[in-house]
Amino acid sequence: MPRALITGITGQDGLYLSELLLAKGYEVYGLIRGQNNPKYELVQRTVPDVKLLTGDLTDLSSLLRALEVSQPDEVYNLGAISFVAYSWENAMLTSDVTGKGVLNVLEAVRLYSKDDPTKVRFYQASSSEMFGKVQEVPQRESTLLWPRSPYGVAKVFGHYMTINYRESYGMHASSGILFNHESPRRGPEFVTRKVSQAVARIKLGLQDEIVMGNLDAKRDWGFAGDYVEAMWRMLQQDTADDYVVATGETHSIKELLDVAFGAVGIEDWSGYVRQDPRFMRPAEVELLIGDPEKARTVLGWEPKVGFSELVAMMVESDLAEQRAAGR
Ligand code: GDP
What we know:
The chain is of the alpha/beta class. It contains eleven helices and 13 strands. It has two domains: 3-181 and 221-245, Rossmann fold; 187-219 and 250-288 and 305-325, UDP-galactose 4-epimerase, domain 1 (Alpha-Beta Complex). Helix 1 crosses helix 8 (224-235), helix 3 packs across helix 5 and helix 7 crosses helix 11 (307-326). 47% of the residues are buried.
């Protein structure tokens, strides 16, 4: 039975990846942070077969211990402080966790697998936020990185450190440059879930309006459940490499509002949406659109869920959640 260790087990990707690996017959270990982590129960309820280990990306000794206990064939580093807007307010913490945390995991894996550097296959969750002020359209693996937030800068550090460990020590370390990926499990601080939740509540008469930031930004949004499949495929290759994972389509926040409100029969949403500078960012990533050609040809990966279907799925799920909460 293959064994996997996942950091960031409490997030949307950690849950979907756990389900995928459990279905494939893996023994799955998840690293969970802190004392009385409020998400502990959620993980236990959603994926009861995952074995939880306590540890922190900023604590090398806890990572080494997690490796000794889980003895993994594959390590997926999904843990990060991942909300872009928050990263300006906590730039150093974000750098420590989202950036230097990657180095800690890589170093722990290197020390753990000293006798054979390819003993453990490593996946790093890199991000399209690394492209920031995009230098090429669409963005591919070779596109110059130009991050626009402390989060993006920290992800660039992790990305290059992953490549460096591959080149320096011969580790099987791959970096997935994943464009925005969403699901009903997405945290409500992200724009898709913020909108799907608000639209559901507006439809049910529980809320009057939604307060938003920049409506012109464009993102390449896919379904998280599809994207974890690409992560797994990367680690099944003979050689480690870097891959863009994206749909190849981009949509603005306005289009997101069109589709989300449309899903509950509201065609004109202008009366429900207010803009507030509070949600604007010091530097914005205006446009992201990925070229998933390499993932398609090398990994045989393709996204299955399209943009409208994704947004409708999220609104449906929030309607059900809000109705259940009201009962
Ligand atoms: P990101 O691409 O990782 O930053 O994902 P987000 O979902 O947080 O933001 C996506 C885009 O939506 C960014 O360009 C934001 O500026 C824009 N946006 C506009 N209004 C909002 C809002 O109210 N909340 C969030 N999170 N993003 C917003």
